[in-house]
Write a structure and sequence with these properties.
Largest sheet: 8 strands, mixed
Number of strands: 17
Bound molecules: nicotinamide-adenine-dinucleotide
CATH class of one domain: Alpha Beta
CATH superfamily of one domain: 2-enoyl-CoA Hydratase, Chain A, domain 1
CATH topology of one domain: 2-enoyl-CoA Hydratase, Chain A, domain 1
Structural class: alpha/beta
Radius of gyration: 29 Å
Number of helices: 27
Distance between the termini: 31 Å
Strand order of the largest sheet: 12-11-10-13-14-15-16-17
């Protein structure tokens, strides 16, 4: 495969990388660069070499499609390619347009001269994958732009525009026209003037004052790293650029790169990266399935969710018809949307003009007739089947054929909802998370009859509004809330066993959860669960037997909104304060049930809560509700505050080892009076027996 085009521009050989979409530096491309270089060096008519990726993309770095395959470690490695370019006897220039990221920028740093388009972006984002630049970036970038600037760029991983580097040793020229023409012209000039070749490896780093700076930087990086190893390793590698000879710095950088590759944090970060790429794909739907155009959206219900959902579309310029049951609710909903935007404007995230533009995209209405030309209608009304039925019958009557009808329901059966319409193929669930304008997760719920092009449209729309979309089949609570039910039950059982809400919350927060389950419950409100349990008891014709949460509700303790729940809150404050009243209610509850409180360790808290998630997810996979284990991880990372550094519950289970997970679950299941659901799921048992993981 010819992945590097070789052309002559007079005496200048131009090597054009060709590996769409981002010129990832796969094995064929690495080989092609060295072959092209050797051809140019062997041709006496060639006086200089220009390396370019074309007008749109220099190189996005490693080829992620090669990750984990033998090709990724096949010779020549990227450092070999860079070494060959740097040691060329003829001048080598990089002509950079689009992105030069990671290995792409390291490749350019191996050239003697660099020309970039002013809008090109340059960066070393490896730290975001729990790594450091492993092909000389930490040694050459400081020699190009100075110690402090290089450190900031490598530790943050944030790319910057080429124009920022004008006048530094990183870029010899910044142009706003054709970079290739500019690079060829510079090459000819370099040859004509007999300019010495500038190898960054030969630049001596100034050492004066660096000790104090490095000490100061170490303290800052350590504080910001929050225990992640990669930022500290980046810090030390960049420090080596002043304290070590160049080749020793390179050797140490490479060793640190491989050490980071083997950390759970980097495995988790790379897992999430791959998970996000995989999530958009449905194995049974052809990749070329066309999507339906979405130019106008209708939203039914302007409450907590409807308002947030609406904002997602306004933010990308899509007009929304917003329908409510009455004028008062509509005005309230509109006022909330405006207040949210005004807050963003106050924080400088939007201009007042942008606020007005977005508000002007809303067409508020009380009349379904205004839905006649929407391409997608999303229902976000009360969570009651009879209310959903009324809404969907209306939507079916007014929406044009081909319009997609979606429900934001958290638990209700999408197939039943689809049955209220004459077009079940056009119906699906679009489950947003609260606050819907902020949370990244979107569960796309596929009904039994949902058409393939409806699924494809939903996924492309998810991308447009910058969500992480995960497909779920229909079941009670879909992927996320179904797992959450087990997590909540495990946490609650620990209270009865002897732990306090604050011990459980703190153990899970130390594990890395954004918020423990009881603080979360106080934030969301205890009253909904109370009402549900009473209703379910009534439906089953049995007396309602109140659990601790219900006893709290009986005292008017609904959580933060009523000033008390599992904790107490000072007026106007959000800090959760332990409350002896709760301890007493729990103690009475244990006495009534004949439970003797025992000591619960933090390790047990984490095991029970997290393994309950993992076990339920294994059932979810087995039943085909989720397509792949990494989808489950995305749901928990983006919708439920699971710690990012652990890569999601399934990735964490892989790290612990499924054998160990199963063994622990068996121990929980064998306790007297244990819930049935502690029995390890068949899929989990099978994988553990075969020594495999969810990967
Ligand atoms: P909400 O009570 O805040 O809002 C519901 C709105 O729907 C109200 O403004 C009400 O006036 C309006 N409404 C009711 N019946 C209507 C009708 N027939 N026609 C037009 N408007 C009508 O509720 P919410 O929290 O926004 O929840 C809405 C839906 O989203 C529910 O299905 C819920 O399960 C789901 N959901 C909620 C959350 C959450 O965290 N709140 C998260 C995900 C999904």
């Amino acid at each position: 495969m010819n992945t590097v085009d070789y052309t002559l521009h007079g005496p200048v050989a131009v090597l054009t990388l060709h590996n769409p979409p981002v010129n990832g530096l796969g094995h064929a491309l690495r080989t092609g660069i060295v072959d092209g270089l050797d051809r140019a060096l062997a041709d006496p008519a060639v006086t200089a070499i220009v390396l370019t990726g074309g007008e749109r993309q220099f190189s996005g770095g490693a080829d992620v499609r090669e990750f984990g395959t033998p090709r990724s470690s096949m010779s020549p490695h990227l450092p070999d390619v860079i070494h060959a370019l740097e040691n060329s006897g003829k001048p080598v220039l990089a002509a950079i347009a689009g992105h030069a990221l990671g290995g792409g920028l390291e490749l350019a740093l191996g050239c003697h001269f660099r020309v970039a388009h002013k809008d090109a972006t340059l960066g070393l984002p490896e730290v975001k994958l729990g790594l450091l630049p492993g092909a000389g970036g930490t040694q050459r970038l400081p020699r190009a732009i100075g110690l402090e600037a290089a450190l900031n760029m490598i530790v943050s991983g944030a790319p910057q525009k080429a124009a920022t580097f004008e006048g530094t040793g990183l870029l010899d020229q910044v142009v706003d026209t054709d970079v290739l023409a500019a690079a060829v012209a510079l090459a000819e000039q370099v040859v004509a003037e007999g300019r010495p070749l500038r190898r960054l490896r030969d630049v001596n780093m100034p050492t004066a004052g660096t000790d104090a700076f490095l000490q100061f930087a170490r303290t800052n990086v350590k504080a910001a790293a929050k225990g992640l190893p990669a930022p500290l390793a980046c810090m030390e590698a960049v420090a080596d650029s002043v304290t070590q000879p160049f080749d020793e710095g390179l050797r140490r950088e490479r060793a640190a790169f491989f050490a980071l590759m083997n950390t759970p944090e980097s495995r988790a970060a790379r897992h999430v990266f791959a998970a996000e790429r995989a999530a958009g794909k449905l194995p049974d739907i052809a990749a070329d399935t066309p999507s339906r155009p979405i130019r106008k959206v209708g939203v039914v219900g302007a409450g907590t969710m409807g308002g947030g959902i609406t904002m997602n579309f306004l933010n990308v310029g899509l007009p929304v018809v917003l329908l409510e049951a009455d004028r008062e609710a509509l005005d309230r909903g509109l006022a909330t949307i405006r207040r949210n935007y005004d807050n963003s404007a106050r924080r400088g995230r939007l201009t007042t003009e942008q606020v007005e533009q977005r508000m002007a995209l809303i067409a508020p209405t009380l009349d379904y007739a205004d839905f006649k030309d929407v391409d997608l209608a999303i229902e976000a009304v009360f969570e009651q089947m009879d209310v959903k039925e009324k809404v969907f019958r209306q939507l079916d009557a007014v929406c044009r054929p081909g319009a997609i009808l979606a429900s934001n329901t958290s638990y209700l059966d999408i197939n039943t909802i689809a049955g209220f319409t004459s077009r079940p193929r056009d119906v699906l669930g679009l489950h947003f998370f609260s606050p819907a304008n902020v949370m990244r997760l979107l569960e796309i719920v596929r009904g039994e009859q949902t058409a393939n092009d409806v699924m494809v449209t939903a996924m492309s729309l998810g991308k447009q509004i910058r969500k992480v979309s995960v497909v779920s089949a229909v079941c009670d609570g879909f992927i996320g809330n179904r797992m959450l039910a087990r997590y909540g039950a495990a946490a609650y059982a620990l209270i009865v066993a002897g732990a306090t809400p604050q011990q459980i919350d703190q153990a899970l927060e130390r594990f890395g959860f954004a918020m423990g389950p009881f603080r979360m419950n106080d934030l969301a409100g205890l009253d909904i669960g109370w009402a549900t349990r009473k209703r379910k008891a009534a439906e089953a014709g049995v007396p309602h037997d109140p659990v601790v949460a219900d006893k709290l509700c009986e005292l008017g303790r609904f959580g933060q909104k009523s000033g008390a729940g599992w904790y107490r809150y000072l007026p106007g404050a959000r800090e959760a304060l332990p409350d002896p009243v709760v301890d007493r209610i729990v103690a009475d509850y244990r006495i009534a049930r004949g439970v003797r409180a025992r000591t619960v360790s933090d390790e047990e808290i984490v095991q029970r809560c997290v393994f309950a998630l993992v076990n339920e997810a294994a059932h979810i996979l087995d039943e085909g509700i989720a397509v792949r284990a990494s989808d489950v991880d995305l749901v928990y990372l983006n919708g439920y505050g699971f710690p990012a550094r652990r890569g999601g519950p399934m990735c964490y289970a892989n790290e612990v080892g499924l054998f160990n997970v199963v063994r622990t679950l068996r121990r929980f299941a064998a306790e007297p009076g244990a819930f049935d659901w502690w029995q390890p799921a068949p899929l989990l048992r099978k994988l553990a027996e075969e020594g495999r993981s969810f990967a």
